[in-house]
Amino acid sequence: MAGLSIQELLAEKEAGLDLELLAGERGLLKSVRVPRIQKPGLALAGYTTNLHPDRIQVLGSTELTYLNHLPRDLAETNLKQLCALDISCFIITKGQTPPAMLVEETERQGIPLLRSHHQSSTFISLVTKFLEERLLPATTVHGVLVDVLGVGVLLLGKSGIGKSECALDLVLKGHRLVADDVVKVRMKLPAVLFGEGSDLLHYHMEIRGLGIINIKHLFGVAAIRERKKIDLAIELVEWQEGVEYDRLGLEDLSYSLLGIEIPLLRIPVRPGRNITTIVEVAARNQLLKEMGYHSALEFQDRLERRMAEMAHLHAHTIIGDNLE
C-alpha cells in the first residue's frame, strides 16, 4: 500500500483538514500507510499494548483533559512511554492548546504535533475519507482517457496508432478529455477505478505535426474533466490481413488494472475506418450493456430460435412426405 508523508498531509488544502504544525518539524517525513486513525486514551494511562504507531493519533477534549488531570510525574512518564513507540503524528482537534509537556516531548522525539479547528468527529470523518482515497493502490497507464456520453473510455495502443487524434475528434464532437498520454489510475472502494491526468500534462494533448495544444484554452472548460471512472478500455491495433477479428461482439475480453477487470474491445485501425465514430458507438453500446441489454447476445438468441424453428419445420416436412 502507498504511503503518505505527514508533510503532504499538512500541505493538503482541498480535503478541508485545516491543519497547522505546532511541534516536531523534524518528523514531517514520517509516513502514514493505513487509513484508520486511533485515539490513544488508554495509552495516555500507560497501557500501550494495542497501540498502532503507524496510525494518526487524534487527541480530543477527553484525552487532553485526562492528561492535564494526571499527576505531572505520571503524565510525563506515560507521554515518554507513548512517544518512544515512534508515533507517526499527533493531531489535536477543536483548536485546543496542547499541554507544554506534550509539545516538549514531541519536539524532542521528532514526532509531528498538528492541530485542527474541527470537532473530533468531523475531523476523523474528513481525514479517514481522505486517507482511504490517497492510500489505495495507484498506477499510471500510457493511453488516453475520455468521457464519452458519461462512459469513461480508456484508449490503449502503441505509440503513434492514433489515440490522441481520436480523442481530439471526440472533443470536437462535444465529448470531454480527461487525460492524454499519461493516465493516473487510482482504485476506489469497493472495486472502482478512477483516472485523471498528471499535474504537468493536465488539459494538454500532443498531436504529431501540430505539437502540444491546450484543450481547455482552445475549447473551454466544458471540453475537459478532472477525473472519471473508467468503464471501458478500447485497444487500437493495426489491421493485419489474415487475422480474424470479432464480427459479432460475443467475445468477452477484459483488461486487468490494479486487480480489477475492465471490459475490453480490440478495434483494428486501417485507412477508411472512422475510429472516432466506432468509439462513440462502443460507448453507447456499453451504456446499453450496463442497463442489461446486450445487442449481440439478443441477435444470437434470435438466430438460434430461427434455426431451431427451421429445423423443426424441415423435420416435420420430411416426416409428412414419408407418411404419404
UniProtKB/TrEMBL annotation:
Domains: entry comment: The Walker A ATP-binding motif also binds Pi and PPi.
Protein name, entry field: HPr kinase/phosphorylase
Catalytic-site annotation from UniProt: H142, K163, D181, R247
Cofactor field:
Mg(2+)
Write down the top EC class of this protein. Answer: transferase
- Binding of ATP: at which residues? G157, K158, S159, G160, I161, G162, K163, S164
Q: Where is the HPr kinase/phosphorylase C-terminal domain?
A: 134-302
The record's section on Pfam families has: Hpr_kinase_C, Hpr_kinase_N
GO function term, MF aspect, one = kinase activity
**What gene is it encoded by?**
hprK
**Assigned EC number:** 2.7.11.-, 2.7.4.-
Give the family from UniProt: Belongs to the HPrK/P family.
Catalytic activity line of the entry: [HPr protein]-O-phospho-L-serine + phosphate + H(+) = [HPr protein]-L-serine + diphosphate; [HPr protein]-L-serine + ATP = [HPr protein]-O-phospho-L-serine + ADP + H(+)
Keyword annotations from UniProtKB, A to Z:
ATP-binding, Kinase, Magnesium, Metal-binding, Multifunctional enzyme, Nucleotide-binding, Serine/threonine-protein kinase, Transferase
Q: Where is this region: Important for the catalytic mechanism of both phosphorylation and dephosphorylation?
A: 205-214
The record places domain HPr(Ser) kinase/phosphorylase N-terminal at 5-131
Biological source species: Desulfuromonas versatilis
Q: Where is this region: Important for the catalytic mechanism of dephosphorylation?
A: 268-273
Q: Which residues bind Mg(2+)?
A: S164, E206
Write down the SUPFAM superfamilies for this protein, in alphabetical order. Answer: HprK N-terminal domain-like (SSF75138), PEP carboxykinase-like (SSF53795)
